[in-house]
Amino acid sequence: MKMKVFFILLLSFMVLISGCGKNLTANGKKEAINHPVELKLGTKMPDESVEGKAFNLFADLVKEKSNGDIVVDVYAAELLGKGKTQIDNMLMGTQDMYVEGATYFDDFDSRVQASSIPFLFRDFEHFQHYNTGELGLEIHDQMISKGVRFLNTERNFVRGPYRVLLSKKPIKSVEDLKGLKIRSFESEFYSQAYESVGANPTVVAWTETYLAMKQNLVDAVTSPISLVWSMKFTEVTPYMTIIDEYPQDIVIAISEDKFSELSKEHQDLLIEAANEAGVEAVKLLEKEVEEHLKLMKEEHGIEIFEIDREEWMEAFSDFHEQVEESGVFPKGYLEKIKMIE
């Protein structure tokens, strides 16, 4: 009799334990919360970079908001592979998250390439309205249908925070671009854009750009201002022009399969943490850029110019028409972007 009572009590205890620490997910499934949900996040940026610090801040915010129920493990400096490899990892389920520019996801929707077309967007606010408005949400819906979701819905995680052109001769107007040997990355749009205004773009790997300029293989390079000091570009180019040719931001992407496994509460806090991390990242970035600019002026005597943005946008408008005719984007798509207030 005592043994029977013992087994009944033991069975009741096991049932009680199995029912504890679970709650319904957004899809009605059960999610165990009696141990942390671990999310593997990959990035190409090192931990000590501003972006690396922001990604670790995101991880801290998630842990804090979830009371330790969710732990984001950050794998920096391409520990999980190159960009496209990490995106494939997400789809296969071997990693959960990847953070980079949205153009890395152009295999899911070619329309994301619009973000790197020079002088299409007036400023970052225009770009942000595009991403959070009807056109941007259409792209995001397409992403989700193919297995990837962007968590930072406010699209406020700025990269840069603006772009500059480093050169061996002063560049003050579009006319100064004619004949300029400018470094290009592997983008047909980008090279064609500068060819359309008379420059001579040359594809050079980012890590080889400093040497290429030192050896006079190229005369100029465009870059986010935040990377100029670390790349030592002002050692070999005495002039800097603030062109901000296109705005850049970072997306914190998560596998849709993993996201759908989480409770609604946990989904919401991930989105909240991603948007908060974007705000803090901009503060970190602006502070570092200010320090770097001071060093560039003091140690290298860099001379800085600004452009007449309307002049440059007008000069590149012929290229925008060429893009419209290429068939990469729906008819009238770039014009719709330009009309966004």
Low-confidence stretches: 1-24, 29-33
Broad shape: globular
Structural class: alpha/beta
The biggest beta sheet reads: 5 strands, mixed
Radius of gyration: 24 Å
* CATH homologous group name of the largest domain: Bacterial extracellular solute-binding protein, family 7
Identify the strand order in the major beta sheet. Answer: 4-3-5-14-6
Average pLDDT metric: 91
Corresponding CATH architecture of the largest domain: 3-Layer(aba) Sandwich
How many domain modules? 2
Please, what is the oligomeric state? single chain
Determine the CATH topology of the largest domain.
D-Maltodextrin-Binding Protein, domain 2
CATH class of the largest domain: Alpha Beta
Q: Give the fraction of residues assigned to helices.
A: 40-55%
Distance between the termini: 79 Å
User: Can you write the helix and strand succession as a string?
Assistant: HEEEHEHEHHEEEEHEHEHEEEHHEHH
Assess the beta-strand content as a share of residues.
Answer: 15-25%
Count of β-strands: 15
How large is the count of helical segments? 12
Protein name: Transporter
Organism: Siminovitchia terrae (Bacillus terrae)
Keywords: Signal
Signal peptide: 1-17
